[in-house]
Amino acid sequence: MKKLLEITLGILTAIGGFVDIGDLVANAETGARFRMSLAWVVVVGVIGIVLYAEMAGRIATISKRPVFDVIRERLGPRLGLVNLVASFFINFLTVTAEIAGVALVLELASNVNYLLWIPLVALMVWMVIWRVRFSAMEKIYGFLGLALAVAVVAVWKSGQTHALLVQATHLHPPATESWPRYFYFAIALLGAAMTPYEVFFFSSGAVEEGWTPSDLMVNRMNVYIGFPLGGILSLAIMGGAAWLLAPRGISVDHLSQVALPVSHVLGKIGLVVFLFGMFMAIFGAALETALSAGYAVGQYFGWQWGKFVRPVEASRFHLVVLLTIILAAALALTTVDPIKVTEYSIVLAAAALPLTYFPILVVANDPDYMGDKTNSKFSNALAFIYLLLLIAVSVATIPLMIVTKAGA
Amino acid sequence: MSNPKGMGRPTGPELLIPRRRVPARVHGYDIVVRPLLALILAPLLAACVGPARWPSAYEGKAGATADQMVSAVETGRLASEIAAAKKGLAPYLSVTIADAEQAATSIQGAFDSIQPPDRHSDALRDQLDALLAQAVSGLSDMRIAARRGEFAAVERVGRSLRSVSEKLDGFAQQHA
User: Fold this and answer.
1) pTM of the predicted model over 0.95
2) In-domain check, residue B153
3) How many domains does chain B have?
4) Is there a contact between A349 and A83 (Cβ–Cβ < 8 Å)?
5) Interfacial A residues in 342-371 facing B (CB < 8 Å)
């Protein structure tokens, strides 16, 4: 019974924790510009993150070593450093976007400029990381992020579900958009769904919580059920934008526009629940990305890391987390557009995906690490196809970014 | 969960698997600095606004500007409809309208900074500028009313912006 409860809670947490500022912006923007013609990318992204997050969780559980530690070992220190620098840079942009995103949600609820909220949000993020236990921290924000499910209710109540499903079968850009832009936004969606910090955090979390082989079932349930249901939240946000914003020619440039469909259909109560869900989901992601900065650096350099030891024993880890939060808040305070930072972070994350996922695939097949828990043939075949896709995406990202002027 | 003390440290006797080194012969500058430069420079390159050296390029930019302004105006109008139906919270509507106004001001500024290449482009600029000014002015009025909590006025301005939105849309389609 206790195990069942743990699995249920894990699934609910995975659903709520799946969505962050990148998913909110990418899905709403894509829905508004391409309607549901890119819904298939969310499905592709969810399958990809399910596949590789399960592997990362399994590696961490069996070998007791998280992803970045393994990446450094498999790639060697120099290539590992490339990975660290690229991942840290992209993760830093994501921390900036998440902190600014929380501040933007507070602005929507209070009408107080988001720049005034940023120092407070940064302080809150650091305080929670410093004071709250890992398991509580992970579950509270993921679980409360489930409030975003109100977006699914809004789409259902709009009566447009069938029309949206029909739109999702049109696998080409609308007449007003070009193919390069279509593929650029496909990459953005894939980057949002498969952001590398998710596996850094997931695998480090497995070590933080001391998973044993008996927890592999929890790992699988979280990933196999929780993430796909989280993907439905993403599709609902895309759907809301597709039926309400797209016909009016509205493109999403601000977080405020993401909530318009929910407010339009469900009124004030729906809006309050949606804003609450956005706050919890983005705040949870801010915690995860800030911690991921410390995980990546600590694991690369072989420092003591994690919240499972007293801060004095992992002082360098906590210093990296603190400095990342301070610098991210400082960048956000320069008045750089948080939505643009979000867009660039997810697209650049897509470009760097093979750096993260290739070593995971290699290690998941290595019996020295995994014993008899290596990948099945089916997993390997699927993972290899995904790796080829990610390499193609990686090669195409920067040229498409320049050709389309970042999707403008 | 039990305290997994010591499990996360990748060194020491508790490791199940020993570390292995993979030799790397590529120069550090090549593999670290260049990819990072690419990551930083690509967004900057993508964000550049190019000049319009030919009338056709200017016309294309004018059409795209009108299209972007439709988005800002329609956001304001949608917020005004939500306000009229009493389905939105005052702070949320106020911020949404202010965001739309900010976007509109930015779009107008970006278009005005483009040098028209010939006399025909001057006429196009004047025509679009008038519409852009109406849109910005309407959204400013809407933002002022929303911040004062006068949502009847927000609704009224929203209705008046409909014709501006239609003209902008027509302009965008004509000069796409």
Assistant:
1) no
2) yes
3) 1
4) no
5) 344, 348, 351-352, 368-369
Supply the CATH number for residue B95's domain.
1.20.120
Average pLDDT over residues B58-65: 92
* Boundaries of domain holding B109: 53-174
Q: Provide the terminal-to-terminal Cα distance of chain B, rounded to the nearest Å.
A: 61
Answer for the pair A327, A99: CB distance below 8 angstroms, yes or no: no
User: What is the number of domains present in chain A?
Assistant: 1
**For residue A47, is pLDDT > 90?**
yes
Segment 104-143 of chain B within 8 Å of chain A by CB = none
Å from A348 to nearest chain B CA? 7
- For residue A327, give its domain range: 2-403
Q: Note whether A210 contacts B86, CB cutoff 8 Å.
A: no
Q: Is residue A301 a part of any domain in this protein?
A: yes
Name A356's Cβ contacts closer than 8 Å, sequence gap at least 6.
Answer: A67, A71, A83, A87, A196, A199, A200
Q: With contact defined as beta carbons under 8 Å apart, do A250 and B104 qualify? A: no
Distance CA A89, CA A83 (A): 10
A83 or B27: which leads in pLDDT: A83
Q: Is residue A298 part of a domain?
A: yes
- C-alpha to C-alpha distance for A81 and A356, rounded to whole angstroms: 12
How many CB atoms are located within 10 Å of the residue A143 CB?
19
- What sign does the CA torsion over A303, A307, A311, A316 have? positive
Chain B residues with CB-CB distance to A244 below 8 A: 78
Tokens matching residue A359: 């070593």
Question: For the residues B117-134, what does the mean pLDDT come to?
Answer: 92
Q: Is the ipTM of this complex over 0.85?
A: yes
